[in-house]
Design brief:
Blueprint lengths: L21 E13 L4 E12 L3 E7 L4 E11 L10 E5 L4 E10 L2 E12 L6 E9 L2 E9 L20 E9 L3 E4 L3 E7 L2 E6 L12 E4 L2 E6 L5 E6 L8 H18 L7 E7 L6 E2 L4 E5 L12 H17 L6 E3 L5 H19 L5 H16 L23 H18 L1 H15 L2 E3 L1 H12 L3 H9 L5 E8 L2 E8 L13 E7 L1 E10 L3 E5 L14 E3 L8 E4 L1 H12 L5 H16 L5 H9 L7 H21 L1 H22 L9 H16 L3 H16 L8 H12 L8 H12 L3 H11 L5 H11 L9 H6 L6 H18 L2 H12 L5 H12 L7 H22 L4 H11 L1
Parallel strand pairs: 1-10, 16-17, 17-19, 20-21, 22-28
Antiparallel strand pairs: 1-2, 2-7, 3-6, 4-7, 5-6, 8-9, 9-14, 10-13, 11-14, 12-13, 15-16, 18-19, 22-23, 23-26, 24-25, 24-27
Helix pairs in contact: 1-2, 2-3, 3-5, 4-5, 4-10, 4-12, 5-6, 6-7, 10-11, 10-12, 11-25, 12-13, 12-14, 12-24, 13-14, 13-25, 14-16, 15-16, 16-18, 17-18, 21-22, 22-24, 23-24
Bound molecules: ligand BES and zinc ion (ZN).
The site of ligand BES has 18 residues, from strand 18, helix 2 and helix 3.
Length: 879
Amino acid sequence: MAAAAEQSAEHFRGQARLPGFAAPRRYDLRLAPDLAACAFAGSVAVDLDVAAPTRFLVLNAAELDVAPGGVGFAPRGSGQVLQPVEVTNVPEDEILIICFNEVLPLGEGTLTIAFQGTLNDKMHGFYRSVYELNGEKKNMAVTQFEPADARRCFPCWDEPAFKAVFKITLEVPSETVALSNMPVIEEKVNGPTKTVYFQESPIMSTYLVAVIVGIFDYVEDFTTDGTRVRVYTQVGKSAQGKFALEVALKTLVLFKEYFAVPYPLPKMDMIAIPDFASGAMENYGLVTYRETALLFDEKHSAAANKQRVAVVVAHELAHQWFGNLVTMEWWTHLWLNEGFATWVSYLAADQFFPEWNVWTQFLEESTTGFKLDALAGSHPIEVDINHVDEIDEIFDAISYRKGASVIRMLQSYLGAEVFQKSLAAYIKRFAYSNAKTEDLWAALEEGSGEPVRTLMHSWTKQQGYPVVSVKLKDGKLQLEQTQFLSSGSTGVGQWVVPVTLCCCSYSRQEKFLFDGKQEDFDLSGLMECQKKDNFWIKLNVNQTSFYRVSYDEELASRLRYAIETNKLSAADRYGVLDDAYALCMAGKQKLVSLLHLIAAYKDETEYTVLAHVITTSLNIAEMMAVAAPEELGSLKKFLIDFLEPFAQKLGWDAKSGEGHLNALLRGTLLTALAELGHEATINEAVRRFNVFLEDRETPLLPPDVRKAAYVALMQTVNKSNKTGYESLLKIYRETDLSQEKVRVLGSLASCPDPVIVREALDFILSPEVRNQDAIFLLRGVCSGAHEVAWQWLKENWDYILGAYSGTLLTYFVNITVSPLATDEKGDEAEEFFKSRTKASIARTVKQSIERVRINAQWVKSIKGEADLGNVIRALAHKQ
Ligand code: BES
Ligand code: ZN
């Protein structure tokens, strides 16, 4: 560290990270929120270690009033308090530079700061959320600090590597419940207010600190080893917390065993917050959730809601070890937190609910990762972060989904047992400390004796992934890897690819690392079956690795036959389709052959696979609507004929005792048929909906098919007949279940009449829709209305920019821009954002526009497929 004594305040501006010459050890934090006035007062006493001579203390603060008179530094044992000569607040760097007249003595000292702030309504920092109690609107105070908003609540060293102990005290209205990371040790009531003292925490990062004040109910239970777990809800809703409570109890026990370290805190509180920016947040010992991600209502929640709750709870509880106990050293390693928690949440869900086949469902995570990572504007898993505004955007499909996918790849390469043992060693080694990606590889390399570093560097330090092209020639398998890009161009990346393959049967497998560009493999032993008629070969067995495969024509048609004759595992059936779709979009394969492949799934039995066939088909229809609208009718007929038999088999009503996956499938199928305009589905939906409108408890419209019915109903709405739309608004207004509200929001913009879509979009901006929920309506914009939504976004941009920030703001851009499919719209978007870019959305804007270009290119190539019309008509006819 340069001699900080000589530095000037200027020196600290424009830096990515805080200087390291002083580090916090313990915070004594007091906060007094005023719920009615939406303001708070606070004071913090930070015990520091001054490690190099300095006249400055530099720490984070944003949107806080700090009176210079309220700042002092007391060197340990000196008996005096030094007053600063200057306290400079630098808003653009979100720092406070405290300058003293003299050089501070090395060693310990206590910095005290008094401050004031507002409880904002942006869902970050210290904010207010609104709920209803006995018909009256009330404010609660909530914190959301990740990634870098603790500084909006109290001045602090707001970086994950500055871990410290927290002693928190709150002054709150006497009738409220005050929660924080640790249990309460004492409450002193003094008339209308009370002071609540919390136990001191173990050493932790600022982004995990949490404070909540409001009026709540809870349900409670204890894990088998005695940890107290509570689920807090709005008053009257605590029964909806029971399912999450059960999952949490089991998860805490599972992870204690898996990581071989007990849960580090004395209690775990989980709480549903009515206004919440993300899905959930893993604050140490006090996990916050959106209502939809925590609450489960036996009567009105769907199977999909149940699964979401289980997965989110497992994800956040995984962070208590992976993230909270062992914390990333810097945001470059965010993926360690998020990729890992995502992966291990599936591990937990699979243990508790084996019948959900979550590992097959996991493939949807990989697909989303693949999609983003096929853009030139993607980024490596380990990404440079040079400014705080860049952090929000990396909570994306690369950190979460590609991250989880490469962990899965490594686990399946190393074997489950070695992997778990090495992880446990890693957690033990870095507990109460920070780690980098490198540290995890070192532990896994030690535990396995495999070249983990070399293998994984190729996946985490460079962006993108390979497509492995396979040809069969003279009994030899020729492999070649190139970087896959959706634009169809070839990138320069190269990877160490853990290749697995099987031939004619899953008992004939081969496994090796492929790190060259091109190589021939003599697999004559394995491939004796290649003379047989039903010969097939599948790479990336069960889709455990993160690469795509492009088969030569012969091998591809063999695989299609293997699918038709049900020879492949569900994961492989999924993978073949997913790769074919991606290759088609990149112009490497014709749409007609993709359509032929889809037809091969006519006897599909697995939910995830069929759901993916549906998603793929609807995407194709969307592109066809732009590329060849005259063929859209026959394409829809083909798809309806394809889906109808499945729907007939499943029906609208659950069979008694039927499984979770059937429930999921029924909703997905009926929604798709409604979107495709299938009349019988729409009529039946309307019939059932009308009964439901009169009686919300009717068995005719169980939660699993409600979304389908709403979407179907919206197909009947137009500007001269808005009854259906208004009925849905009635349901929205009358329910107090967030999941029901989201179902309605998700269907309102699924209407063929653009006038109605506009009206629905405007509804987003009304006070009836919480800011957290706007994206659900946007996501529901039907395929014909993307340009309407884009126009709407442009017109309302200034308002949106003022009302939203963080990931929510990036969703507006991504959801609205990405589906556009002409160069003209691409130019328009470029032009529009040229003068409106800022660091917090720059990456998303770039990626979204790239997607438009890719769509446009795909549209052009579809237009060039001369025989497309004939093939579609033939396929439609065949069924
Ligand atoms: N740490 C995140 C929450 C978060 C997200 C904070 C973005 C700041 C910015 C949390 O652990 C998380 O990942 N939540 C997910 C849900 C999860 C099940 C994938 C989310 O919010 O979507
Ligand atoms: Zn997470």
